[in-house]
Amino acid sequence: MSRQEKIALSCAGLLTALAFLGHAAFPPGKAPPLPFPLDLETIRSGFAQSQIVLSTVVLGVLVRWKPREFFLPVVLVFFSSWAVEALGVQTGMPFGSYHYATGLGALLPGQVPWSIPLSWAVAVLAVHYLLRRLSPDAGRLRRVMAGSLLLLAWDLVLDPAMSSVLPFWLWGTDGFWYGVPLSNLLGWYVSGALFLGMLEPLPGRIEFLPARNSLGTYLLLLCAMPLAMVALAGYWLAIAGFVLVAGLGLALSRQKPSKKGLDQVPADSSGRMDFMARHSRSFRFASRFLSPHLREVVGGVYCWCRVTDDLVDEAVGLSSLEIAHRLDAWEALSRRAYEGGETGIELLQDVFGRMATEMIPFEIASDLIAGMRMDLAPEPFESPRELRLYSYRVASTVGLWITRSAGVSDPCVLECAEALGHAMQLTNILRDVGEDLSRGRVYIPMSDLREAGLELADLEDYASGTRAIDDRWRGLMEILMARADADYQLSLVGMAYLPGSLQTGVAVAAAVYQGIHGAIRRNGYDNFRKRGVTGQMEKIGLGARGWWAMRRVASRVAPVPSLAGGVP
Fold this sequence. Notes:
It contains 23 helices and four strands. With 568 residues, it is an all-alpha fold. The strands form two sheets. It has a two-stranded antiparallel sheet. Strands 2-3 form a two-stranded antiparallel sheet. A hairpin with a 3-residue loop joins strand 2 and strand 3. The chain is elongated and about 90 Å long.
């Protein structure tokens, strides 16, 4: 929980406590005259409206005031609930016959206080995002049904508190639930389902959602005042109903995570190395030089990254929105494992349990998934700077993750790890130009193409064979390979500070991957129809040269005392 979240939730808790203390000290019908001109009804009205406003502000802080995650859904639910409440006041549908008193602020058209649709909006949005955090794999219908139960649980104490204890709204008929008719409880469940169903298709980004403990605390604060009021009034059945229905809602939202797409990922570390060997010979070759501990770390991180990548690249027949929901669910499951929760997926429990133990920020994994999201609606990068942001997210994050897993946190070494990620991703892009083009993706910056005298249409011509590989393309490839080589060279400095076997493993991996440049040249720079690969003997030679280059750099740099005793 961030410092801002703690401050915001603390302010909401303080105001709730003050409101309840005032209610307990001056209960309705028993309050003595006050020594100042304001009457108790005005004070109660001010506290009620202030709590709704502060709840909105707190939720905005939790969701970081992002338009898609906060403003859009709040506006949507505000106007929808206003329409439903106005219908209810005018016709009695779907809640029953009722009307509002004056204590909740100015009335909107339809005789609905302005604060009522706002309270609907923040409660519905908080429940929606809490269930997306708790149960990303439960499915939309299940989340809507479960969320409606959570909203109904809130109403089981809210309605008695605000219509029986305090007369903020009045019922036309005396109902069985502390004066609240059954039709209202049914209407609440249906209305809650309607509003939650409206939010499900919205494209909220999970990286901007608060952690579940923040959302849980927020919802408890929303319920705290009515719970305390009905407890003071002795409405114990209302409290029991709240606990029972909220428990049913949480139980309904729980569902065993789907393991579709994970069947091929082995549970044990040795099997994960075999999985890596099937998908990346270069990384598998380099991993032979790692210690058993680091081999286990690398195998787990590689498998998680591979599954994450496949959620996008292998999602045949799914829309971008559907793939985005898959990524949201995968990120939420990963975060759940990081926070110590159970996911039912051993890969996540191992990888993120270790990540949390080693105090590696989860944002590293979030950044990588953000890079995957960039591939959902691929747009050509205008400049090398935009490409570098992408390569940071999908590649440098992996280098930072593994480096920090080895106990290294020196900023200069981490910067070198970032550089190696940039270099390897650019090499990967140059190797796969034709394959990426067939998927509608072009990663070479447009400014580089223009400087080489080329356009996007020229790439299609190269790929189809209607235009032969020429000096313009060869020159561009050399420029981009030189750019990658500069980052490879910078990364050598950081390798010198890595502990134990990681030095050798990273040096070999970098050299083998950089060797793809030679394969591209041997293919006549035709990376549209030919894939640049290195053979086993060539990998051995490249690895040896990489290790020797790293040792030469290491002999010229001073040791970093903080790295002594790192992971071997």
